[in-house]
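Translate structure to sequence.
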C-alpha cells in the first residue's frame, strides 16, 4: 500500500509556513508532490520539504514538477530515484544465466543497458578490447554500402537486430544492420532507415577510408552470437529473455534494466516558470534512451543527432564567415532530469549514475540554478547539459539570437562536482556540454576518464553575434580525457561569446587510443570555428598544444601553458 508517513509543521513566522512530508520507498513521489502542492494552494504552508527515507523509489513515468510546485525541496540520504525494473528468477543455461523479461506497465519492453550487482554489464559485442576493432574497407556513399572484411561479420550473418558502432573522427554512429552480402573476402553491409540516408549523406564528421593512414574502426553489438565474454549480455526481444554470462565467481544478487528515459521533468512556461525548487542528496539512476534502437543515431557533435543533413553544391556564401559546405538539423537525447522554463532550480549533493541517456539537462529558458557537490558517473552520453544546440527548426550553422531572450539559459552555475566514466556509450559526448548560454559559471569541477572533450562551451560554427556572452570556465581540473576520440580538447569553444573568460584551469594527461583518426589532432585548449571575444588566461597545461581554428576577432590569450604558477595549478578542481 502506498502511504505518506507523516506531515509535520515546523514553524511559522514572518508569514512563512514551513512543513515537512516524509515518505518511504513504498510511497508515491507523485502523490507526495501533489500533497505539497495542495498544502500551498490551501494556505497551509508556503514552503514544503519532501524527505525521502533510504531505499529505491521506482518510477513508471517521469515525476513532473510544475509552477504550482515552486518553493519545494526534495531531500534524501541514500535514496535512489530509479527508472529501472528488476529482473529475477535467473536460471543456469550452460555458461549463461537466462531470465524471462516481464512486461512493464502492460507492454513488452526493450532496453539498451543492464546493471548486475550495481555494475554496468556489457552489451554483447565482437571485441572485448577496443584496440582490436576491425577497420572499414570501402565507403560507398552513392549506394549506401559500407564494405568490411568477410571475417569481421561472419558471426552475425543471421542475427536479426545486430548493430554497428562506427568511429568517425569526433563522433560515433549507431547503425542498425539491415543486410550483409558476402563477396569474396569482403562483405557489403547495408543499414535501416533513417540512419542509412543520414549516414551516407552527411559530410561531417565522416569515416576515414583505407586511403588514409587511419581507416575508421567499428565494433558490432546486439547479437546473441557475440555473447562470449564474462560480463556480457543479450536481450532476445522476440523471446522476451535476457542472457548474461557471469563474471568469475559472480552470483546475481540484483539485476536491473531501464524502462524509463527521463526521471524528473521541470515544466514551466515563459510567463509562469517553475521557481525555487531544490533537490538535495538524491541519486538518479537506471534510465535508457531508445531512439538508437528504432531510428539509429548519427550525431553531428556532442551527441546532438542529425535528423536531416547533406552536402551543399555550390557552397553558401556567408558574410563574415567562411563558405558553408553542408546543412544539418538536430535533435537532442533525453536526460535523466530535464528542466524547461525555470528559475533558481538547484541540485545539491546529488548523484547521477547508471544512465543510458544524458544526466542533468537545463534544456531551454532556465534562469539561474546551481549544481554543486554532485557526482556524474556511468553515463552513456553527456553529463551536465545546458542551453540550446540550435532549435529543431533552425539550421545548426545559422546564428541563434531569439526574439525572446527568455529562451536562453542564463546564469547557471555548476561547481564543486566530479565527472568520470561519462560518455561511455556515445564516445562523442562530453562531461559538461553548454551550448547557446549566457552567464554560465563552470568552476572548480574535477573531470577525468571521459571519452572525448572535458568541457564544451558554445555552438554554431559562426562568428556572428548571438545570444552567448559573459560565460566563465574557472579553475577546473581535467585529466585522462579523450579515451576514444580525438579532434578534442580539455576545454573547447565555439562561436561569438563577448565577455567570456576561461581562466586558471588545469588540463593534462590525454589518453592515447591507437584507433583515432589523426593521432596528432588533439589539444589542451581549442577555440574552434567562430570563437570570438573570449579571454583565455592563466590556464596550466604541460605544453602550449592549443588550436585556434577559423576564429573570429577579439580573442585574448595570456599566460597559458607550463609557466603558470603552482598556486594556480594546485587550486584547480574540487576544493576541500
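Result:
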Amino acid at each position: 500500500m502506498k502511504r505518506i508517513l507523516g506531515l509535520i509543521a515546523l514553524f511559522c513566522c514572518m508569514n512563512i509556513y514551513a512543513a515537512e512530508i516524509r515518505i518511504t520507498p513504498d510511497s508515491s513521489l507523485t502523490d507526495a508532490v501533489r500533497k505539497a502542492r495542495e498544502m500551498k494552494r490551501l494556505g497551509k504552508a508556503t514552503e514544503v520539504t519532501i524527505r525521502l527515507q533510504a531505499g529505491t523509489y521506482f518510477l513508471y513515468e517521469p515525476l513532473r514538477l510544475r509552477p504550482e510546485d515552486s518553493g519545494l525541496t526534495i531531500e534524501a540520504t541514500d535514496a535512489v530515484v530509479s527508472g529501472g525494473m528488476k529482473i529475477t528468477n535467473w536460471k543456469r543455461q550452460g555458461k549463461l544465466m537466462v531470465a524471462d523479461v516481464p512486461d512493464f506497465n502492460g507492454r513488452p519492453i526493450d532496453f539498451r543497458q543492464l546493471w548486475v550487482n550495481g555494475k554496468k554489464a556489457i552489451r554483447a559485442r565482437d571485441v572485448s578490447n577496443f584496440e582490436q576493432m576491425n577497420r572499414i574497407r570501402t565507403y560507398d556513399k552513392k549506394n549506401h554500402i559500407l564494405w568490411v572484411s568477410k571475417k569481421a561479420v561472419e558471426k552475425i550473418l543471421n542475427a536479426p537486430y545486430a548493430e554497428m558502432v562506427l568511429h568517425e573522427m569526433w563522433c560515433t554512429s549507431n547503425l542498425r544492420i539491415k543486410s550483409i552480402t558476402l563477396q569474396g573476402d569482403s562483405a557489403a553491409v547495408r543499414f535501416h532507415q533513417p540512419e542509412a540516408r543520414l549516414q551516407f549523406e552527411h559530410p561531417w564528421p565522416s569515416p576515414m577510408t583505407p586511403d588514409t593512414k587511419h581507416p575508421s574502426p567499428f565494433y558490432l553489438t546486439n547479437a546473441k552470437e557475440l555473447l562470449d565474454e564474462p560480463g556480457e549480455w543479450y536481450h532476445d526481444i522476440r523471446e522476451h529473455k535476457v542472457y548474461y554470462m557471469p563474471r568469475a565467481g559472480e552470483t546475481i544478487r540484483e539485476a536491473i534494466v531501464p524502462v524509463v528515459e527521463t526521471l524528473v521533468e521541470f515544466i514551466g512556461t515563459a510567463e509562469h516558470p517553475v521557481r525555487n525548487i531544490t533537490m538535495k542528496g538524491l541519486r538518479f539512476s537506471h534510465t535508457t534512451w531508445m531512439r538508437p534502437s528504432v531510428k539509429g543515431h548519427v550525431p553531428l557533435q556532442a551527441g546532438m543527432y542529425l535528423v536531416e543533413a547533406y552536402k551543399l553544391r555550390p557552397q553558401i556564401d556567408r558574410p563574415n564567415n567562411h563558405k558553408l559546405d553542408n546543412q544539418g538539423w538536430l535533435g537532442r537525447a533525453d536526460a535523466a532530469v530535464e528542466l524547461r522554463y525555470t528559475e533558481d532550480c538547484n541540485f545539491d549533493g546529488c548523484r547521477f549514475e547508471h544512465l543510458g541517456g544524458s544526466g542533468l539537462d537545463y534544456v531551454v529558458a532556465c534562469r539561474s540554478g546551481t549544481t554543486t557537490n554532485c557526482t556524474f558517473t556511468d553515463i552513456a552520453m553527456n553529463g551536465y547539459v545546458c542551453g540550446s544546440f540550435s532549435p529543431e527548426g533552425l539550421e545548426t550553422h545559422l546564428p541563434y539570437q531569439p526574439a525572446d531572450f527568455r529562451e536562453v539559459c542564463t546564469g547557471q552555475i555548476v561547481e564543486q562536482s566530479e565527472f568520470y566514466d561519462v560518455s561511455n556509450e556515445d564516445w562523442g559526448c562530453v562531461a559538461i556540454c553548454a551550448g547557446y548560454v549566457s552567464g554560465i559559471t563552470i568552476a572548480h569541477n574535477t573531470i577525468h576518464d571521459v571519452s572525448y572533450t572535458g568541457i564544451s562551451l558554445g555552438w554554431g560554427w559562426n562568428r556572428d553575434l548571438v545570444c552567448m556572452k559573459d560565460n566563465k570556465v574557472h579553475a577546473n581540473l581535467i585529466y585522462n580525457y579523450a579515451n576514444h576520440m580525438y579532434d578534442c580538447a580539455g576545454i573547447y569553444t565555439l562561436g561569438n561569446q563577448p565577455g567570456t573568460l576561461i581562466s586558471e584551469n588545469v588540463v593534462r594527461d590525454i589518453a592515447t587510443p591507437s584507433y583515432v583518426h589523426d593521432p596528432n589532432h588533439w589539444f589542451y585548449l581549442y577555440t574552434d570555428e567562430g570563437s570570438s571575444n573570449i579571454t583565455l588566461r592563466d590556464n596550466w597545461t604541460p605544453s602550449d598544444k592549443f588550436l585556434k581554428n577559423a576564429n573570429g576577432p577579439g580573442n585574448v590569450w595570456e599566460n597559458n601553458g607550463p609557466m603558470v604558477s603552482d598556486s594556480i595549478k594546485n587550486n584547480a578542481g574540487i576544493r576541500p
